[in-house]
Amino acid sequence: MAGEWSALLPLKASSDLFRQVSMKSISHLFLKMWHWTGRHAYMVATILFVVFGGFLDPNSYYHRFLLMEEIRHLEDEVQHWKDLYQEDTRLLQELNEKPNAMERLARERYFMKRPNEDIFIIK
After folding, report:
1. How many CA atoms lie within 13 A of 93 on its CB side?
2. pLDDT, tens digit, 9 for 90 and up, residues 42-95
3. pTM of the shown model
């Protein structure tokens, strides 16, 4: 059993050495990044502002762009329904004013016919 433990001791010692080297390099890297951030504070602050204000914030420019697209789509839909309303209002007024408008509407829109007629639809 003593032979087994002695074989593992160099591995344990080398892993401790690896941890020490690793911690030194990590702390050195952290210090380098900290000093670089201190030297370029305005650039770091600007980049953070652009990332946060442009993408991460609920009121970001990206979300505003999506909402503006939705508003444009809804405005187009409102205009479509207004046009349809005006056309139906004009048609209703025509039906109330002209007595033969009902027959013309039935023939054009619903393809109705008199009993002794044949209709050919050409598109």
Report:
1. 6
2. 998 999 888 887 788 888 888 889 999 999 999 999 999 999 999 999 989 998
3. 0.50
Alpha carbon 72 to its chain's center: 15
Token pair recorded at residue 121: 């639809």
H helix runs in 40-123, sequence order: 41-51, 61-97, 101-110
Q: What is the Cα 88 distance to its own chain's centre? A: 36
Q: Which residues contact 55 (CB under 8 A, 6 or more apart)?
A: 61, 62
Q: Cβ distance 62 to 54 under 8 Å? A: yes
- Hunting for tokens 């344990």 — which residue is that? 12
Residue 79: its pLDDT value, please?
Answer: 98
* Cβ within 8 Å of residue 91, ≥6 positions away: 105
DSSP annotation of 58: T
19 has pLDDT over 70: no
Contact between 43 and 36 under an 8 Å Cβ cutoff? The reply is no
Cα 100 vs. chain centroid, distance in angstroms? 52
